[in-house]
Amino acid sequence: MIKRTLKQIENMITVQNDLSTFSSLEIEGVCIDSRRIEKGNLFIPFKGERMDGHEFVHQAIEDGASAALWEKSAGEPPANLPIIVVDNSLQALQDLARSYRQQLNAKVVGITGSNGKTTTKDIAASLLSLQYKVQKTEGNYNSHIGLPLTILGMEENTEVMVLEMGMSGKGEIAELTHIASPEVVVITNIGESHLQDLGSREGIAQAKLEIIEGLTESGLLVYFGEEPLLVERIRSLSIRAETFGKEKGNTIFPTSLEANQKGTFFSTNITKNQSFFLPILGEHNVLNTMAAMLVAKELDVHLEQAQQALDNVRLTGMRLETVKGAKGETIINDAYNASPTSTRAAIDLLASLKGYHQKVLVLGDMLELGTEEEAFHTEIGNYIPLEEIDYVMTYGPLAEKLAEAANMRGHGKVFSFQNKEELVQRMKETIQFGDVVLFKASRGMKLEEVVEKLM
């Protein structure tokens, strides 16, 4: 993590006060939560709707922080304390991260996309770890605050940093990529997430392409080569690019695919038909793996050893987590996020699974889909292969539209709930030993609460 004296920090960000009294004082790491201060931290206060972090500056220093930022607009800072006055705490955090990244020798990989970016990040980090000391975005630290914190947590001897870049509106990816200055960037796909803010898939594609704005000279763009919205735009750019996908026209594509209950065997055109086993459910995750392989290849990792990395992939929570329920059923928890694209992939996964007694699909609302949200849910209800899935249970007002569409097809085993306790009760009455249950919903629906009650 960052270790710098206040004198050095003064050369990294714009400071509004005299730090000469404390110039030799060293900070180690940064913290934005006064309750989690560790010795030596630089405390960064933010003004929130309910609380103002400046109220906790004095306590943070008492608890071990070496110094703290202070926004000029917050009034007179505490006297005789190591306070760094800045115009804006967020801007100072981002400037500090940008400067720290430029001072290090690490290469940076930036990953964005509507779906699959977190899994691609996790797989890429594992592949790159075959040859390098790697750090990656942890949890959901992929925002205008989370990404700078991730960079500032990077050890000085890190060789490759794999950074996830999230967004909700235009300009946000551009901001992140200019902080990170990546050598390689990945766009996993263009889905429907954030239609509420960006209006169309075209708008989403344009926002995701902002990631190339911070790409270093001669850097590489890796993207899904079967997305017309990307292909059309990238063809007109003077940029080095490689593609992944199912079709032979891509830089990397699968030459074989065979799924089972634990993952997928696959081979690719660039690995001389060597067979790999991906211990993550869903053929769509083979696409994420191939994107990560192109990243690793660009950084001179020998893909012949890729199986070792795939065996050791550590996925971020609630992404195809597989656990056993109280009755011995298999529970697949993919309820971290949902869009029509990722929900269709989850449905395809459940339909393809073999060897289970019953297949139960539990779907919650897909959020942030804009004015067409009901239509998207209806489409999913019509998409479900009811002949392959025994029960469909939904939770939430939008998912009710999904259930209505599915019920119109005469399946007879589609149920909709607005109360989690009622959903749990019906599931306990329905589920048997040897069943498989898949959960998919937007994070705001908190379907993990249902999962926990089945354990």
TrEMBL record:
Enzyme class: ligase
Organism of derivation: Bacillus spongiae
UniProt keyword annotations, A-Z: ATP-binding, Cell cycle, Cell division, Cell shape, Cell wall biogenesis/degradation, Cytoplasm, Ligase, Nucleotide-binding, Peptidoglycan synthesis
Record-linked HAMAP family: MurF (MF_02019)
Intracellular or extracellular location(s): Cytoplasm
Family of this protein: Belongs to the MurCDEF family. MurF subfamily.
Residue ranges occupied by any Mur ligase C-terminal domain in the UniProt entry: 318-443
Catalytic activity: D-alanyl-D-alanine + UDP-N-acetyl-alpha-D-muramoyl-L-alanyl-gamma-D-glutamyl-meso-2,6-diaminopimelate + ATP = UDP-N-acetyl-alpha-D-muramoyl-L-alanyl-gamma-D-glutamyl-meso-2,6-diaminopimeloyl-D-alanyl-D-alanine + ADP + phosphate + H(+)
Binding annotation for ATP: 113-119
UniProt pathway: Cell wall biogenesis; peptidoglycan biosynthesis
Domain Mur ligase central positions: 111-296
Gene3D superfamilies (alphabetical): Mur ligase, C-terminal domain (3.90.190.20), Mur-like, catalytic domain (3.40.1190.10), MurE/MurF, N-terminal domain (3.40.1390.10)
EC number: 6.3.2.10
GO molecular function: UDP-N-acetylmuramoyl-tripeptide-D-alanyl-D-alanine ligase activity
Biological function: Involved in cell wall formation. Catalyzes the final step in the synthesis of UDP-N-acetylmuramoyl-pentapeptide, the precursor of murein.
Domain of life: Bacteria
Protein name according to UniProt: UDP-N-acetylmuramoyl-tripeptide--D-alanyl-D-alanine ligase
Occurrences of domain Mur ligase N-terminal catalytic (ranges): 26-101
Keyword rRNA-binding appears in the UniProt entry: no
This protein's record includes keyword Transferase: no
